[in-house]
Amino acid sequence: MRIGELSERTGTPRRMLRYYEEQGLLVPGRSANGYREYDERCVDRVLQIRGLLDSGLPTRVIKQVLPCLNQPRAIHVAGATPETIALLERERDRMTQRIECLVRSRDAISGYVEAVRRAGGPGTGEAAGTPALHAPAALHAPPAVPEPAPAYDLAVSA
DNA sequence: ATTCTAACA
DNA sequence: TGTTAGTA
């Protein structure tokens, strides 16, 4: 498939697709006309990249780690250098902190929404209930699922 | 019609 | 990021 289709199927702007390639995250083939040619695997690949990006990993880390996270890790044992492992551990800890931050933010919002509701605020008795604050999105399947970026403005000062 | 590269604000 | 230009 060409960039347009991949773009639609992953909800990723073409711009970003080219950018990922520039960063060495994606390596599409080229057809005679010079157009990028992507295979089916790229769909999950892009979703995975976006998930990692949304998790706060810089592209250079993703580039280094994507091969390991993917298929037969037996083949990528080479990349499992102690240094890389340490890097991954740092990133994992960062994610943990981020998760904690997200939880606080979500609870803060939840608390507010429910307070408004109890106070008989707008939307009470009306048609729509709260438009699902936590989307039932299939969380982190094999291909990392992009989660909406947190509004750090809302983070509770804890 | 679609994509490509490069570049500027 | 939006956008434009000049191609193939």
UniProtKB/TrEMBL annotation:
Annotated Gene3D superfamilies: 1.10.1660.10
Name this protein carries in UniProt: MerR family transcriptional regulator
Organism from which the protein derives: Streptomyces tamarix
PROSITE patterns, per database record: HTH_MERR_2
Xref: InterPro entries: DNA-bd_dom_put_sf, MerR-type_HTH_dom, MerR_fam
Pfam families (UniProt xref): MerR_1
SUPFAM superfamilies: Putative DNA-binding domain (SSF46955)
Sorted UniProt keywords: DNA-binding, Repressor, Transcription, Transcription regulation
All copies of domain HTH merR-type, residue ranges: 1-68
